[in-house]
Amino acid sequence: MTKRQVQEVNAGSTADIAFLLLIFFLVTTTMDSDTGLGTILPPYEEEPPIDNKAKNERNVFEILVNGNNQLLVEKKEMDIKYLTEATKNFVLNPQDEAHLSAKELQRIMLLGEIMVSKGVISLQTANDTEYQVYLMVQNEIIRAFNELRDEFATATFNKKYKKLSKDEKAAVRAAIPKLISEAEPVKISTSL
Length: 192
Description:
192 residues; alpha/beta; two-stranded antiparallel ribbon; 37% helix
């Protein structure tokens, strides 16, 4: 009987395949997939703000989004396409209406003394609000402030906001402050 010779397995190609698999898994598991809203938090304050509900109620523009993704703005149902204009009207309050935000006289560098809105946009969502709807509402609020700042910059400096110098942008931001309050999602009734 003749003995059969056992063939050796080429371990070099096995090592290459193992190395390629290792690299593949390292690359695919360490990819950054950060998504979300890029917002800047307000500076930390040592003392909590004084809450004077009767005084502040006028200055709060309340936006609620329920589980059916319906908007309730200032206790009235509203389509999202009207949210930008409603927000701008609340912040500007051009006719000094009592149900819209109050204004206070402030001295701002480059602008002098001007009336500035004390309005705060309050956004409250339900636990089961769709994330896409939440982003759409956020987008409309941010659009309102961007448009207000752009209009103010054009009227004051005869330039769009993006074309302003650093000091001019700071003055516009002080004149049109972006005050947005977001509460933790809660259970909101689905019937408006």
